[in-house]
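Supplementary Methods S3. Input chains for the assembly prediction are listed below.
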Amino acid sequence: MDKILVHGGRPLSGSIKISGSKNSALPILAATLLTKETCTIRNVPDLSDVHYMLTILSELGAEVERASGTVIVKAEKIKTEAPYEIVRKMRASVCVLGPLLGREKEATVSLPGGCVIGDRPIDLHLKGFEALGAANRVQSGNVKVFASQLTGSVVNLRGKFGSTVLGTDNVMMAAVLAEGTTVIESAAAEPEVVDLANFLNAMGAKVEGAGTRRIIIEGVKELHGAEHSVIPDRIEAGTFLVAGAIAGEELTLNRVNPDHLRALIDALRTAGYEISENGESMKIKGRHAPKFLELTTEPYPGFPTDMQAQMCALLCKTAGLSVITETIFPQRFMHVSELKRMGADINLEGASAVINGRESLSGAPVMASDLRASAALVLAGLQADGITEVNRVYHIDRGYEQIDEKLNGAGAHIERVKA
Ligand code: EPZ
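Predicted C-alpha cells for the full assembly:
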C-alpha cells in the first residue's frame, strides 16, 4: 500500500491538464449495457473506480477494450446479476441497475454497504423504478428489481437532502426503453447528468430537460451504438484551483469547463483570489491575506459537497472565522480530525465546521478516509511546514489520475512511497 509524502512550502506555477470526469464516466460506461451494439467512449480517466466498472461490465458478459483514455464496449449478450466481490468495492456500481432493468427487465446487485461520508440509501432509486412498474426484493444482501414491462410515469426524486445524482441517472437509464413517457421531477441537474443524457440521445434515446429539475424521457423500442467523449472532471479541476489558491504564484488549468465551477469560482473570488478564464483554460493567482468565508454545500449549481473538504484545507490558514455547512452528507467531516493533527483550529458544530484560520500548519502523518478527504490532506500538506505523510492513498487513486505527478509538474515536491 502506498503513501504520499508532501514537502510543504513549494510555490506552484505552470499548467495542469484536467482529466475526464469520474462521475460522468461511471454512469456512461454503465449505459453501454443498454445496447447490443458497439459504443466508443473517449476521455475516460485512468482510475481504480473506472477499472472496477469495466470489470463489472466484463463480468456481466460485455466485451471491453481499453486503450489510453478510450474504452470500447460491446454488450451483445449480458447477464443481469453483478458480482458482489466487485460491487462491494464501489458504490457507483449501483448504476448498472437502471440499464439492466431497462433492457432485460430484471437486475440484481448487492446493496451498497456503509460509507464513511454518511448514510447513502438507494430508496429513491427504487422509488423511481417502482413508478415505472418494477418491483424489488432485498435478499441475502442483494437487491433485485424486476418487471414484466416498464411503463412511463411521473416520479419525484426529491429526498431529505435534495435530489439524487445516481438516482436520476438510474431512472433515466431505465426509462429510455420503457413504454410511453416518463417525467422525473426534482431531478439532479449536475453536469454529469447532462453528459449521460447526451450519450443516451446519441444512442437514439429521447431525453429532454437534462440540466433542469424536470427531465422528460419518451421511451423507444431499442438503442444503437454510439461514440461519446466524457466532459472534464470539475471536481479534479476544483481541487487544483484550490491548490493554486493555497500555493499558486500563477497556475493554469487546461481542458476544463469553467461554467461547471461557477459556485467555487465565486467563492474564491469573494475570498479575494484572482481567477481569469479563457475558453477551456483558467488561471488562478494565490494571494496573501485572503478573506474568510461562509459556505453551504448544495446540489448543483450550488457549492459542491465534493469540494467541501478541500475548502476546509484552504480556510485553515485564512485569517478569521470561516464556516462551512454540509447539507448533502451532514457527517462528511472525516478530514477535520486529521487537519487538526496538522495544527488546524476547527470545531464541528452539528453539520458545520467552524474554522479559525492559523498562521501556520505543520506536516504530520495523517490518514486518508475517503476520496475528497485525502485530496484535502494533500492540499494541506502543500502549505504546511515540513513533510506531511498521507496514508491509505488508494482512496485518492479512486478519483484523481496521477495527482502527485500533475502537482510535481507544477512545482510541488510530492513523493509516492511504499508504506
Ligand atoms: C454522487 O453520489 C457522486 N458520486 C458523489 O461524489 C457526490 O458526493 C454526490 O453525487 C452528491 O453530489 C458519483 O457520481 C459516482 P446522491 P450519489 O444520491 O449519486 C441521499 C465523489 O467524491 N439519498 O446525489 O450516490 C444521500 O444519502 C463522490 O466523487 C437518499 O436519501 O449521491 C445523500 O444525502 C462522493 N436516497 C443525498 O441524497 C437515495 O436513494 C445525495 O446523494 C439516494 C440518495
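The first strand starts at residue 2 and ends at 7. Residues 23, 26, 92, 119-125, 159-161, 164-167, 188, 305-306, 328-329, 371-372, 399 surround EPZ (CB under 6 Å).
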